[in-house]
Specification:
single chain; mainly alpha; elongated
């Protein structure tokens, strides 16, 4: 198993990259899915990025908390 990087800057840079790519994919996926279901309100374009942000915050708290 790979070890975590010792440099906190690299660890946070990795989180930032994951967040940027994940938000881009979540917005695009929500836009695409809203176009397919055609409910008249952009529900998934709001919901998917929100769920991603909540999940990333939980991951950051778990990974950076002292054990």
């Amino acid at each position: 198993m790979k070890e975590r990087p010792n440099d906190p800057l690299m660890q946070y840079a990795g989180y930032a990259a994951q967040l940027a790519v994940g938000l881009g994919l979540a917005v695009w996926g929500g836009w695409w899915a809203d176009g397919k279901i055609n409910i008249g309100f952009p529900l998934l374009i709001w919901l998917l990025p929100l769920l991603l942000l909540i999940g990333m915050m939980i991951k950051v708290v778990k990974d950076t908390s002292k054990k």
